[in-house]
Amino acid sequence: MTVTPRTRTPGRRAARTLPRAAGALLAAFLLGGCGASAASEDGATDAGRRFAAAVSAGDYRTGCALLAPETREQVEEDARGACGPGLRQAELPTAGLPRGVDVYGREALLRMTGDTLFLSRFDEGWLVTAAGCAPPESKDEPYRCSVKGG
User: Counting Cβ atoms within 10 Å, is residue 145 exposed (0-12), middle (13-18) or buried (19+)?
Assistant: First the structure.
């Protein structure tokens, strides 16, 4: 059996490498654009900390101001009255220090010691869409939250 070596033309390898390099650059560009900026992470974390501090201090007026509109409406509907008393009735757990934040575009998940919050970015900034959230027992189940929008 005779094996003849393949001959390569110099341009052929370059032609194969260029699309790969371009594809790698495009993937890096696209993936880089999907990552959350530090400003988004800081903004969501700060809003979550302010909400948790207000609720912990019994400042339900400030807590309500940091709720997303649909969430505030749901709290009022559940309480059959004003948001403040409704937020107090929700008996949210005391949240401590932030343990991590995941930002996906205009949505964020903030894990704190004692509580998990969901937030969304609105024109006026980050607002809490759900609080008092317990992680699911399995990945197929959603978080269970005591305060959430309708």
Answer: buried
Secondary structure element (H or E) that encloses residue 46, with its range: helix 38-56
Residue 33 lies in a domain: no
The reply to whether 25 falls in a domain is no
- Give the separation between CA 90 and CA 112, rounded to whole angstroms: 18
Domain housing 75: 38-148
Say what the pTM is: 0.74
**How far is residue 147's CA from residue 150's CA, in Å, rounded to a whole number?**
10
Query: How far, in Å, CA of 90 to CA of 60, rounded?
Result: 11
Instruction: Read off the pLDDT of residues 56-91 as tens digits, 9 standing for 90 and up.
Output: 999 999 999 999 999 999 999 999 999 999 999 999
Count how many domains the chain has: 1
Residue 56, domain CATH: 3.10.450
